[in-house]
Amino acid sequence: MMEKLSTSPPPINFSRSLAMPKQIISRFIVPALGLSGIGFALYFTTVLANPPAPPPQQLALPVETPFDDTISASGVIEANTRNIEIGAYLSGIVTHVLVTEDQEVMAGDALFKQDDSAAQAELAQRQADLATAEATIRQAQANLAEKQDQLKRAKTLQKGLSVSEERVVQAQLLVDSAQAEVRVATARRDAAKAAVGAVQVTLSRLTVTAPIAGKILQLNVRPGEYINVQGNTPPMIMGHVQPLHVRASIDENDLWRFKENTKAKAALRGNRDAQFDLTFLRIEPLVIPKRSLTGQTAERVDTRVMDVVYAVQPNNLRLFVGQLVDVFIETGE
User: Fold this and answer.
1) If you average pLDDT over residues 258-269, what whole number do you get?
2) Cα 270 to Cα 272: distance, rounded to the nearest angstrom
3) Are 322 and 247 in a shared domain?
4) Among 54, 204, 259, 306, fewest CB within 10 Å belongs to which?
5) What is the DSSP string of 144-207?
6) CATH number at residue 260
7) At 91, which CATH number?
8) CATH number, domain with residue 171
9) What is the DSSP string of 95-132?
10) CB 98 within 8 A of CB 113
11) With bands split at pLDDT 50, 70 and 90, how would you rate the model's confidence at 3?
12) Is 290 helix (H, G, I), strand (E, B) or coil?
């Protein structure tokens, strides 16, 4: 008897089928991950960890003097009227600022206004007092005219018959009294008028005007801010800038070499080629402690200097008030 053929499929070897993916992972994926890690490490150490070096810092070369024998000094550009610190006559709140920085103004132009409500109220009261005083004068003058008329009529009558001598004297006394009342009323009127004038002066002082024609260099006040007349910061700084001046501070050790009316040049800080000519104007012959500092490491602050003022000759450079410059003065030795 023949054995019955089996038609069932062969059994699946699960252990072998699971081993094949492990072999693929171990043979291909793991080495690939290792190689990529090594590549990233090499890229990090060679590229990312070593960025390109920054360009070297450019050093500003010092300015060379254009003269063989020279005095070097530190200078500052200023307005030819000096920098005028505009102040206020009275402390108070600012209501209107009528100018801006860098604006040209004429002498007498209004710069800013302060709150004048209290002064306006006082002015109205003083004007009412003045009107009352003037009315009092008119009343006193009318009374004087009446008394003078009575005296005149008393004198025309025959003494002893129509009017007694005592009545004439009494009428004269009334005239004298009326004249005194007129003088008192006039004095009160003058005092009231002076009070009105004083308030008007106060009102005019609450509008600060430009003392000269020039340019607004700095604006330190805004509407709504309080101005203290004893404060250290001025509301505005202005000056006439055509032409500009340079104030050079010459060290006391070089004063013996200094000569007026010699050639002088100035150079801008940070640009050794930006130089311009100077014209001597005057010296301020008081030697004072050094106040304008340049910030250099080798600068002495315990020295004394004398200020010499020069005018900037016309040039194409853009100069600003307050800018520091290096000044070179020919000694002519």
Assistant:
1) 89
2) 6
3) yes
4) 54
5) HHHHHHHHHHHHHSPBTTTB-HHHHHHHHHHHHHHHHHHHHHHHHHHHHHHHHHHHHHHHHHTE
6) 2.40.30.170
7) 2.40.50.100
8) 1.10.287
9) EEE---TT-EE-TT-EEEEE--HHHHHHHHHHHHHHHH
10) yes
11) very low
12) coil
